[in-house]
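Hi everyone, sorry if this is the wrong subforum. Our group has a chain we'd like a structural model of before ordering constructs, and none of us has done structure prediction before. Sequence below.
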Amino acid sequence: MMPLGCMISGFVGEIQFNIMVLYLYYLMQPIIFHKYFINFLLFLKTDVALFVLFQMLLP
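Answer:
Right subforum, don't worry. Here is the predicted structure as tokens:
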């Protein structure tokens, strides 16, 4: 079991990361986002890239 402080800090960090991802998503134009950013994520082929992609797709 992780300490409660670590759990809370990790949860807050995840929320801040999701907000940053959504902010970048809304800043980009849809055409640019789908044409280049998705290809960039597929090019990385990392867990982080897949995590961001799923965060974008999920409501």
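For your construct planning: The chain has a mean pLDDT of 68. The helical segments are 4-27, 30-44, 47-57.
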